[in-house]
Specification:
single chain; about 210 residues; mainly beta; OB fold (Dihydrolipoamide Acetyltransferase, E2P); 1 helix; globular
Length: about 210
């Protein structure tokens, strides 16, 4: 395995290139600064399109700069925050835009994530209906001002087998992609709603020595 620390020196890096598929909506204001959320589509090799939410400050990009159909190359970080919906907390996952450039379709689809953090839940190993090994993890990635982002990750195959042997508190570095996944949830009244989950699909994983 290549040394992933040669790839980026930060602990939370997202590199996204794709098409704007849903225009900006006001998310919130902090100290007079407005933040907007918009959605980008990034296709996998299989042709499936991941629909990833971006959050951007008006100081970085004004709403009129975000046009459906335009291609953008974005560098930023994964951010998570809880939102109360119908009396329950929901974990929202976005890519916080640090830098961007306009590009064209010729640039190609990019969905590249690097994270370094600590396991904050016991990894959950399971097997898919097709017999493939899977392991779900929750990674706590520290950022400034004593805050952390809690990012769900999913490993497959050999990475899943290795992940299932890890313990809470272990420090790991991963590379992968941020993917969206729709699922159906049945309410008590029998109605069914379609929801979207976001997680980092792990392609490389390694332990990091604690200092």
């Amino acid at each position: 395995m290549n040394n992933m620390h040669d790839y980026d020196t930060t602990t939370n890096m997202a590199h996204i290139c794709g098409e704007v598929i849903d225009g900006p909506k006001l998310s919130h204001r902090t100290y007079g600064e407005a933040f907007y959320i918009f959605t980008m589509g990034i296709k996998r090799n299989s042709g499936f399109e991941d629909r990833i939410n971006m959050m951007v400050s008006e100081r970085m990009m004004m709403p009129e700069d975000i046009v459906v159909g335009n291609w953008l190359e974005i560098r930023g970080q994964i951010r998570t925050y809880n939102e109360e919906v119908e009396g329950r907390n929901r974990l929202n996952i976005v890519v916080f835009v640090r830098d961007f450039v306009y590009c064209s379709e010729e640039a190609g689809w990019v969905n590249d994530i690097f994270l370094e953090g600590y396991l904050c839940k016991t990894p959950l190993a399971r097997t898919s209906p097709l017999g493939r090994r899977i392991c779900d993890m929750m990674l706590a990635v520290n950022r400034m001002y004593n805050k952390s982002d809690y990012i769900p990750c999913i490993a497959w195959g050999r990475n899943a087998v290795y992940s299932s042997s890890l313990d809470v508190g272990d420090k790991i570095a991963i590379r992968g992609r941020l993917q969206s996944r729709e699922y159906k949830k049945r309410a008590e009244d029998g109605s069914v709603t379609v929801k979207t989950a976001f997680e980092v699909s792990v392609t490389q994983l390694e332990m990091v020595d604690l200092e």
